[in-house]
Design goal:
By secondary structure, the protein is an alpha+beta fold. It folds into two domains: 128 residues, 2-Layer Sandwich (Phosphorylase Kinase, domain 1); 134 residues, Transferase(Phosphotransferase) domain 1 (Transferase(Phosphotransferase), domain 1, Orthogonal Bundle), CATH 1.10.510. Helices cover 41% and strands 21% of the residues. The chain has eight helices and 13 strands. A six-stranded antiparallel sheet has the order 1-2-5-6-4-3, with helices on one face. A three-stranded antiparallel sheet has the order 7-9-10. A hairpin with a 2-residue loop joins strand 9 and strand 10. Helix 5 runs parallel beside helix 7 and helix 6 crosses helix 8. The radius of gyration is 20 Å and the shape is globular.
């Protein structure tokens, strides 16, 4: 495991009583001016009124940078998932969590996998031995996650083009032996570069590059992505037809040979085993949160 103490070209390491920070050199002053390299400033800003903050678990801050031609940064604060989110929420014993993700994002960008430009990993000291983490990236203006894109885009040709490109990008990630810990439509961004669409992979927290990414790992990733698409079809009214799914698979496999048939069979078998259990979890989640769809609350709430 790579430590924060190991140098990373283009970044500077800062450690003081407020915490540990790994920051891209040209962004150090703008981040200092935003108060991100000192303890507590982000949380004071939250109490005063966030402005561009999108409230909710894991939702990011979007903050303007002075003197950089309208450039803005996205600050994603780390939250626990699962049962831990009810207890420790944003507190972590691991002081290097955000730094590992920064290094991984830099690595996959060098490999040619499209992702966000990361400018800093922040770990504020909160209590003895406890840290709050955040990752700072440059905002991709006009970007939408894959789910939002599919819900809003009316052109079938545009949808198919983006799904095929998403398949190519996920395959590139797998070809470089990257096991994405949370591959789902919310962690695939769609943006525009001139006349063409770009697809980016984001949120590599707890992900890793393995010596070999075997078939079982690829199947788990693809099954997770398909499971989320089915969940969103049921809960959000996402209409994703067979032809559109086929375009994603065309992007991922290139052609429908024996490899594709075998792996898709394994994906379907995995879904058949696990989907009933996940549907039960989704029902409990909807009951506890009062959400019947994306961003909507049930009339009972």
């Amino acid at each position: 495991m790579v430590s924060i103490s190991e140098p990373l070209p283009g970044f500077i390491r800062i450690e003081d009583r407020n915490g540990l920070f790994l920051v891209r050199e040209e962004y150090r002053i703008p981040l200092e001016e935003l108060g991100l390299l000192g303890r507590g400033n982000l949380w004071v800003r939250e109490k005063e009124g966030p402005g561009t903050l999108r409230a909710g678990r894991g939702r990011p801050w979007i903050l303007p940078l002075d003197g950089r031609d309208g450039e803005r940064v996205v600050v994603r604060v780390y939250h626990h998932g699962g049962a831990l989110r009810w207890f420790s929420r944003t507190l972590f014993l691991d002081k290097e969590r955000s730094f590992r993700e920064l290094r991984l994002l830099e690595r996959i960008a060098q490999m040619g996998v499209p992702t966000l430009k990361v400018v800093g990993a922040l770990a504020w000291k909160v209590l003895p031995g406890f840290y709050r983490h955040a990752l700072v990236t440059v905002e991709e203006k006009g970007a939408r996650d894959l789910l939002t894109f599919l819900l809003e885009e009316e052109s079938p040709a545009e949808r198919r083009e983006v799904l095929e490109e998403a398949g190519r990008v996920v395959r590139r990630l797998h070809d470089f032996h990257v096991a994405h810990a949370d591959l789902h439509p919310g962690n695939i961004l769609v943006t525009r570069e001139g006349a063409r669409r770009r697809v980016l992979i984001i949120d590599l927290d707890q992900s890793e590059i393995r010596p070999v990414l075997d078939r079982a790992a690829r199947v788990r990733g693809l099954a997770r992505l398909e499971r989320f698409l089915r969940k969103l079809s049921e809960r959000e009214g996402l209409d994703l037809g067979r032809m559109e799914r086929a375009r994603f698979l065309k992007g991922y496999y290139g052609k429908f040979g024996e490899e594709a048939r075998q792996e898709l069979s394994l994906v379907e078998r995995r879904l058949a085993r696990h989907l009933p259990w996940h549907r039960g979890v989704w029902a409990v989640e909807a009951f506890l949160t009062g959400k019947t769809g994306r961003g909507r609350r049930s009339p009972a709430c």
